[in-house]
Amino acid sequence: xxxxxxxxxxEIFGPDLAxxxxxxxxxxxxxxxxxxxxxxxxxxxxxxxxxxxxxxEANRGQRDAALYTLVESVRVIGEAxxxxxxxxxxRILTHLNLxxxxxxxxxxxxxxLRPGTLVEPPTPLFPHxxx
Length: 131
What we know:
globular, 131 residues, 49% helix, disordered N terminus, mainly alpha, two-stranded antiparallel sheet, 4 helices, Isoleucyl-tRNA Synthetase, Domain 1
């Protein structure tokens, strides 16, 4: 297991995600737009991982902040996917040693991952099919 340490400043990827999902799944009932909002957060987290390269960061504080930000992004993405891919969302949260929160939209709030949370070694969510 890996530990993500306490940090003070993190970059927030999805501050408007809950609002966007409420609009697209509530009044508009547009699952395609809701999924686009989620994949937007996935894209921003991926770009952040490439830009910060936490595995190469020598400064422990910056590395810990980047890792926390990325793991919290994965948590938010896992929670956001619950209505669309429930099994996959559950597996994402299980990798983080978490259970789904009772309320779907409140679970999307940033900063709910406790610093120091132990995470499981990653395994593919969608393994490649072999012939």
